[in-house]
Amino acid sequence: MGKRFKFQNLEKIPDLTLVSIVKRKRDFEIIKKEKWYRIPVKNAPKEIAQIKYLAFYFPKIFGKRKWQILYYGKVKNIEVRKRIDLLPKEKDNPNALEDYYKITIKNLIRLKNPVVSKKGRRIIFIITTLEKLLNSKEINDLFITSPIEEKLYSELKKNNIPCERQYFVKEGNDFYSLDFAIFGKKGKIAIECDGEKYHLTKKAVFYDRERDNRLTSSGWWVLRFYSKDIKKSPERCVKLIKKTIKRIS
Q1: 210 contacts 166 by C-beta, under 8 angstroms
Q2: Contact by Cβ (8 Å): 48, 87
């Protein structure tokens, strides 16, 4: 895959939604009582100015409620404040003087159907839509990706093949985002969906080869499918994926 969301004009999505991790229980108490949450400016997604809804992902610290999205709210206001102004009792925090987005919501709404992470991923941010949030069963349903990725994801679900989308892997000092990751008892598979326009350029071919080599040396099976393969013969792609799954099961 090329640059993140390169193929999407997110500014035109009317119900653009940000899913953000809630790292501490006391932060959720602020969300419930004061209806605002903070995100470091230096780490925030570039689409933050366009978001209309904010949803909250609970990590392991939330016990029985971990690894799921249970609540969201409509954004009322976004402003930049110093952390120390938002949390004056934490003046000794090393980030006290850093800039943070203070995102105020109009209300806190509980989802009728929680969106869960079956693998228990530590997800920091996901850009999605309100429609996806309200209709998704699991985290992997939320991602806004290219048409060919959506097509392959649909085929994987149709064939009951569990996978993780937009899965980050660290190799040395580099992070790679895998379009799809599949895990087995004896190994793991990285699946990439490549658009010919970008991935057949000289620069992209060199980058993809280096990346594939590093992933392979770390135990990944790497499968690449061009858009024409997914569009014309999705069943052949799935057949090859199933064959590889047998090798790692």
Answers
A1: no
A2: no
CATH class of 10-141: mainly beta
Cα separations in angstroms, 5 against 52, 96, 197, 249: 18, 32, 15, 32
Q: Tell whether the torsion through CA atoms of 75, 4, 236 and 223 is positive or negative.
A: negative
Question: In the chain, what are the domain boundaries?
Answer: 10-141, 147-248
C-beta separation of 133 from 55 below 8 A: yes
Q: For the chain, how many residues are written? A: 249
CA distance 243 to 210: 25
Q: Is 5 helix (H, G, I), strand (E, B) or coil?
A: coil
95-106 pLDDT tens trace: 999 999 999 999
- Label residue 64 exposed, middle or buried (CB < 10 Å: 0-12, 13-18, 19+): exposed
Angle at 165 between CA 20 and CA 74, to 5 degrees: 30
Architecture of domain 147-248: 3-Layer(aba) Sandwich (3.40)
Output the pTM of the full model.
Answer: 0.89
* Contact predicate 92/125, CB 8 Å: no
Radius of gyration for the chain, computed over Cα atoms and rounded to the nearest angstrom: 20
pLDDT of res. 150: 96
Q: Answer yes or no: are the C-beta atoms of 77 and 52 closer than 8 Å.
A: no
Q: In whole angstroms, what is the distance from residue 205 CA to residue 194 CA?
A: 11
pLDDT band, very low/low/confident/very high, at 220 (cuts 50, 70, 90): very high
